[in-house]
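FORM 7B: Structural annotation worksheet

SECTION A. Query
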Amino acid sequence: ELKVQNPELWWPLGYGKPNLYHVTIQVETPEGLSDQKTILTGIRTVTSTVTKTKNSVRRDFFVNGKRIHLVGGAWVPDMMLQNDSLRIARELQLVKNSNLNLVRIWGGGVTPSDLFFDLCDRLGLMVWNDFWVTGDTQGEFKGSPDWPLEGHVFINNVTSSIYRIRHHASLLVWTGGNEGHARKPLYYAMRDSVATIDGTRPFIPSSSGFAKLPEGWKGSWPDDQPSGVYSGGPYTWKDPKVYYELVEKSPDWVFKDETGIPSQPPYTTLPKIIPNLVWDNKAPFPFNDTWGYHDAATGNGRYDLYYEEMVKRYGKPSTMEEFSDKMQLMNAMGYQGIFEAAQSRLNETGGVMLWKLNPAFPSVIWQIYDWYMLPNAGYYFIQNSVAPIHLQFNRTTNAVDLVNRSYKGHDNLIAEVYVFDTSGKKQFSAKEKLSALPSSVIKLKALANWKQTPGVQLILLRLFDKTGKLLNQNTYWLENQNDFKSLASMPEASLSTRILSSIVEDGNRVVTVQLQNNSAPLAFFTRAQVLDQTGEEVLPSYWSDNYFTLMSGEQLTIKVRVDSHQQKPVSIRVSGWNVKEMIVPIQY
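SECTION B. Predicted structure
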């Protein structure tokens, strides 16, 4: 009965604008208006298909008929189940700023508030919603199929939750839980309720293709097929080449909905969560027992291996600050490898998702930003990796690929490739003109004549449009034996930093910063921070780029936004792996 002519459609982040409409529903009686309700919603379609691959099945999701490559991660509830609206808004803004397009509501948690879904609608973030079943405590893994005991309460919650959030454009899919299945009456209650009460988006049995449905049970709705998505990690740090091998050969990486790495926060967070930072050399890694309360354990995340791999690559740290700085290199390389490997086969994989995005409590693993909403370096390497159009070094082919995640074609692009040694001496450079078809991966010829030589080499990639505007930049460090200890002896670089503007935009402070490398060495792993009048970093701060590398003479303009509820930003600090620190005041 309701027809909208030529509507402005709702699109996920990276694929278009998340257009929304206010819809007011009124009930009138002969006596007049009886009741009314206004909702904010988007107009879009969601469908899903299953494709048989060589060794498994892959699920694909479509919004408005366009296949969407899902990149995101799990959202876990606050350790005290707090529902702080300002914190939720800030965290979801951090997710959007990372260029990830999906948040998965983990089945071991709770369904978030209406505000959460309202914000996801506005930000263009898709939501993958598990019902409240997890193999950790229910079903076929560790718990009992009798749980939850009060099945009628569970079913009532399913029904009321579908009614409550089904109008949200951001809601992409319902699942029967995390890594397992509830007993049959509860499973069918979820499946049938989605079909009858919603009916506009799919239901899949579980966020784990390893959990097989019992014989005779119906599969996903409406196609009656397997989930086609797979958890199971790895959850420990891996060399980026490993992720390329997994994507190429492992049947579960056709759609990986859970993988991740330990992800040490920058040093400034450590004194806030660990009161005694003295190392205990008798521990599996040189910290004290307090770290165990923050997930630094030898279990599934294997923090000991994370530390050992860092020492093997970058050398044993002598201070806690040096330890944290070297761990940022591990974070950057690890997260870059996960996402770039998956999208190296953009149209042969359904997506990749992290365990997990947000911290439930002050932790040192499985997060892209910490409890204080400070991103680690891996966050910004994700931001770069899943940008709508992106240059990346393929760890399998040793070639450069142009990945166009969007459905917009690009003509007259210019790719520049540079290879340097640690002294800043340029060993190789190439330039290539090319175009990008929608949703495509194109292999460049730019590195065809390059041969990797002994020692650490840094590969810098730059992508420009026809006007010379920088669209994407990327950095890698390579060594045949993964021995990067010589990075510690890189000559010092110095930058000039200018504040181009400081304006109020939509009630928030936006500062534009221009940096230039005025020295001969590379300015490697350069970090920018916005500070308040006490010298503390303003958090969260939403940077357009960070932890970047600049060639001699190269200039880069970046922006940072801080919201109006935060401390007033008064200066910008610029530092880096081999960069002389400087602090520049913001003029008002």
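SECTION C. Observations
The two ends are 55 Å apart (CA to CA). The CA atoms of residues 456 and 479 lie 5 Å apart.

SECTION D. Sign-off
Analyst initials: ____
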